[in-house]
Design goal:
The complex is a heterodimer of chains A (133) and B (584). With 133 residues, chain A is an alpha+beta fold. Chain A folds into 2 domains: 71 residues, Alpha-Beta Plaits (2-Layer Sandwich); 57 residues, Alpha-Beta Plaits. Chain A is built from 4 helices and 8 strands, in the order E-H-E-E-H-E-E-H-E-E-H-E. In chain A, the strands form 4 sheets. In chain A, strands 1-8 form a two-stranded antiparallel sheet. In chain A, strand 2 and strand 3 form a beta hairpin. The longest helix of chain A is centred in the first third of the chain and has 9 residues. Chain A is globular and about 40 Å long. Chain A starts with a strand and ends with a strand. Chain B is of the alpha+beta class and 584 residues long. Chain B has 3 domains: 201 residues, Aldehyde ferredoxin oxidoreductase, N-terminal domain (Aldehyde Ferredoxin Oxidoreductase,  A, domain 1); 187 residues, Aldehyde Ferredoxin Oxidoreductase Protein, subunit A, domain 2, CATH 1.10.569; 151 residues, Aldehyde Ferredoxin Oxidoreductase Protein, subunit A, domain 3 (Orthogonal Bundle). In chain B, helix 11 runs parallel beside helix 13 and helix 21 packs across helix 25. Chain B is globular, with a radius of gyration of 22 Å. Chain B starts with 8 loop residues before the first strand and ends with a helix. Classes of the chains: A alpha+beta (133), B alpha+beta (584). At the A-B interface, helix 1 and strand 2 of A face helix 3, helix 4, helix 7 and strand 13 of B.
Chain lengths: 133, 584
């Protein structure tokens, strides 16, 4: 299963997904979230929802010099924190901007496709999907 | 409060000396929680008696609360200042991203002191504070453009709030607003003019802190309980579907919707600008404040052709709510949706409080009709329903084109004291009337509420609940208004949106506070609400407010309410009763 943006146009910008993500990663407030909602150039233009696409051939893993990002079954990657040196190449490699950065740990924050955010999306913007990409 | 909670950090900014510092104020936040409670204490500390509201000595306090950033619908920022509009307590609440941005930047409150020598704006990104130049933004035609430029210049998209003023604030109109996230406002009592007097064009705040909780597991489970209740509640549906304009049709039908300066309390024409009709014809987008699943903000898409060039169109996104629909719609006899949207947009661009503006223009129209002022004063012919005339008048108001508009820019009470027409000047304690002519509760609430707002004590709701029954005894009504206002001090100290007051019953508040490290029972909360209300009233009285001397406008006794004609003696008895309860 992986996280999917079902319909960006339904997004009202409440950011409950971001709070849910941060909460599920043990960081109440914001700071531990792995998805992003921001306006598309002012509230008048609606919103951009950025989530990890769970790529079948993830560029973030490809550029990691230490194999700290391991491709995950169903797409996306899993971070092996012990192997990560905090070089930040993964963040630069993701054209979507879906690799977050933990300033304290100096390591990437990567979506684990748990679906906790989708459960807290009141307007069906986010959903979970199966199958090959 | 939990150890390490940045809530107790108060950021002080001195614009005159370009200095900033942080003081840890656990004393304040432990006792008064946040929001209104902490803000009134900070106002007392920083605003000496008799301060000129438009001088550098008037502080601006922005406060958030413990539940913000942790629980849904704790989404308001409380602003406190001395009001240039009423001359006493200035308190205004706004949502957008402001509260979450302030809290997650790592502060419970910001105190802005002094004044800029030249136009500037503040950028607060966590612990990095910048004094930016705003000379190039000063005098800019539209608030939207100011927002766009600051967005382009500052980091933190999605995590920031940009509170800004328009030309109304720069020109010190005493009911100028501060706008945040394009469509939300610290609307009432003139915060925009206080910004303007400090040559402070905007405050941009961003942050993304984590916050401590007493126990992660019980936090998550209480969160889900509140979240589930929120999305299942009828309030959620009501305000998500049609938004606050949902109230237009029922209030019109009831005969509680003020029309044409309250010459009437309903009009068949109002049906055309009801929440239903606006949604059908114009609703283009709905928005939410940060951490609010409801999303009550309704934005209309207005597509207009250019008059002199074929196939040239523009589409404008315009926020519409109940109160602006009343003040700039029905009060001015504007019943065409496109006309309404155009005047809402005109007010949004210049950054005026829509409610005071509408009531001021309604008074001016009637004063012109009655010959108290002439077209030499008003410069344009003001007549009910004439949007184009009103849009020109708004421009004159902001530019302070002549003596008449300079006076009108200080509110209807000032204008009517100068030109006559106090009988139909809909001012309560110096603040213009909100949109409910539902009965005695509404009007007494406006007069006696510490902010002169319909949201102080929701008298309009009491009136409607009491319809078809015997009028409440004066003492009972006084008690009901006062106790509602006192409880709301707790909600606004926790910066909970008042739309969520049904969800956050005392027992839920107590549980949520426990997660944030507060052990309080209901009795303590009630006492706290009473104390905060008293502090606010004490500030008002210190600055010259005397409720015993305040007069209700004659007009409200001349137009029937759903509860019948208002009885002067009943109103007076209720006021007396309220004041004796207050002093007890």
């Amino acid at each position: 299963m992986r996280l999917n943006v079902v319909d960006t146009d339904r997004c009202i910008g409440c950011q409950l997904c971001m709070f849910a993500c941060s909460r599920s990663h043990g960081q109440p407030g914001l700071g531990g979230h792995r998805l992003w909602v921001r306006s598309a150039g002012g509230m008048e233009r609606g919103f951009v929802v950025i989530v990890c696409r769970a790529c079948a051939d993830p560029p973030c893993a490809a550029v990691c010099p230490n194999q700290a990002l391991v491709p995950r079954e169903g797409g996306g990657v899993v971070l092996k924190p012990d192997l990560c040196t905090g070089c930040g190449h993964c963040r630069n490699a993701c054209p979507i901007g879906a690799v977050g950065w933990d300033q304290e740990a100096q390591k990437p924050m990567i979506c684990i496709h748990c679906g906790y955010c989708a459960k807290h999306c009141p307007h069906e913007v986010l959903g979970m999907e199966k199958g090959e990409r | 409060m939990n150890a390490g909670d940045p809530l107790a950090d108060v950021l002080y900014i001195d614009l005159s000396r370009k200095k900033h510092w942080v003081e840890r104020r656990e004393d304040l936040f432990r006792t008064f929680l946040g929001g209104s409670g902490v803000a009134i204490k900070l106002l007392e500390e920083n605003c000496p008696p008799g301060t000129d509201p438009l001088s550098p000595q008037n502080p601006i306090i922005l406060a958030t609360g413990p539940l913000c950033g942790l629980f849904p619908l704790a989404s308001k920022t409380v602003a406190m200042f001395k009001s240039p509009h009423t001359g006493n307590l200035g308190e205004s609440h706004a949502g957008g991203r402001s509260a979450v941005a302030l809290r997650l930047a790592g502060y419970g409150a910001v105190v802005i002191l002094g004044a800029n020598e030249r136009p500037g704006y503040l950028a607060i990104h966590g612990d990095r504070i910048y004094f930016r130049d705003a000379r190039a933004l000063w005098g800019m035609g539209s608030c939207f453009t100011v927002g766009r430029i600051i967005r382009d210049n500052e980091p933190g998209p999605g995590l920031r709030s940009i509170m800004r003023i328009g030309r109304a604030g720069e020109n010190l109109i005493t009911y100028a607003a501060v706008t945040t996230e394009s469509y939300r406002h610290f609307g009432r009592l003139g915060l925009g003019a206080v910004f303007g007097s400090k040559k402070l064009k905007a405050v941009a705040i961003s942050g993304q802190r984590r916050l401590p909780v007493s126990d992660l597991k019980s936090y998550r489970s209480l969160y889900d309980e509140i979240y589930q209740a929120a999305v299942a509640s009828p309030v959620m549906k009501k305000y998500h579907d049609l938004g606050t304009p949902e109230n237009v049709a029922p209030l019109n039908k009831l005969g509680g919707l003020p029309v044409k300066n309250l010459a009437a309390a309903g009009d068949d024409g109002a049906e055309a600008i009801s929440g239903e009709r606006m949604a059908q014809g114009y609703l283009g987008r709905r928005l939410a404040c940060s951490h609010c699943p409801v999303g009550c903000i309704h934005i209309a898409a207005l597509r207009e052709p250019y008059e002199h060039e074929a196939y040239f169109y523009k589409t404008t996104m315009i926020s519409y709510d109940y109160e602006p629909t009343y003040a700039l719609g029905t009060m001015l006899g504007i019943f065409q949706p496109e006309d309404l949207l155009k005047i809402l947009d005109a007010v949004e661009r210049v950054g005026l409080d829509s409610m005071s503006t509408g009531v001021a223009l309604a008074w001016a129209t009637e004063a012109l009709e009655k010959g108290l002022v002439s077209e030499k004063d008003t410069l344009v012919k003001l007549s009910w329903g004439d949007t184009s005339g009103y849009r020109q008048a708004i421009e004159h108001l902001v530019l302070r084109s002549n003596e008449f508009y300079r006076v009108l820019g200080q509110g209807v009470r000032t204008a009517a004291s100068r030109y006559g027409g106090l009988d139909f000047a809909l001012s309560f304690g110096g603040n213009e009337m909100p949109g409910y002519h539902t009965g005695p509760g509404a009007h007494l609430g406006y007069l006696l509420g510490a902010r002169h707002s319909h949201l102080d004590s929701a008298g309009y709701s009491l009136d409607q609940k009491n319809l078809g029954q015997e009028p409440m005894a004066p003492e009972r009504l006084a008690r009901a208004l006062l106790s509602e206002e006192q409880w709301r001090q707790v909600l606004s100290s926790l910066v909970l949106c008042f739309f969520a007051r049904g969800l956050y019953q005392p027992e839920v508040v107590i549980k949520a506070l426990r997660i944030t490290g507060y052990e309080l029972d209901q009795e303590r909360l009630n006492l706290l609400g009473r104390e905060i209300h008293q502090l606010k009233y004490r500030f008002k009285m210190r600055e010259g407010f005397d409720p015993a001397k305040e007069k209700l406008p004659e007009r409200i006794f001349q137009t029937r309410t759903p509860a019948g004609m208002l009885d002067r003696k009943y109103m007076e008895e209720t006021i007396t009763s309220f004041l004796s309860l207050l002093n007890r």
